[in-house]
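Repro:
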Amino acid sequence: MLALVLGWAGSARADQYADVNALLRQGRANEALAKADAYVATNPRDPQMRFLRGVILTDQGKQAEAISAFTALTQEFPELPEPYNNLAALYAAQSEFGKARDALETALQRNPNYATAHENLGDVYVRLAAQSYTKAQQLDKRNTTVAPKLTLLREVFLPKAAAAKVPPAQPAAAAPATDAGTPAQR
C-alpha cells in the first residue's frame, strides 16, 4: 500500500480516507474509486483524496488516468513531492525512463529528504545505464567492456524469474534489462 504523506485532515475527512483505504485493501477498488470520486466532487481542492484516487487508478491498471490524476496534482500543488514520485513509477512502468528521472528530480527538489524518491531515482539510473550499455554494444560489437556491465546489472537488479527470460549479455546486441528496479510508488 502506498504511504500518504500529505497534509492534516479533520476527523470527518480522516474517516473518508480510512474508508477508501479500507475498501482498497479489501480488493474493492471500484467501490473505493466511487467513494473517492464522490468525495473529490464536493472537495475538489483536497490533494490527499485526489492522490489516493490516483493510487486507486494505478492499482486498477488505468495508467493513463492515473498519470492525468498525478499530473493535475503536480500542476495544482507543485510543492508536493509524492505525486511526482508516483508519476515517475508510472513512467518507468512504460519504459519512459527520461520522464521518470525528471519527475523524481522534481520530487527531490521539493523534498531532498524523500528516501523513496532517492531509491527510485537510483533504480531509474540503473535502467538508463542498461539502455546506454545496450546501445553502446549495438554500435560497437567489438567492445568487450560492455557485456560484463550488462551481465552485472542483470544479476544484481533482475528478479530471478525475469533473469531467466533475459539472454546473457553478449558482444552482439542484447536487450536492455526490462524488469530491474521499477520505482516504488509511495
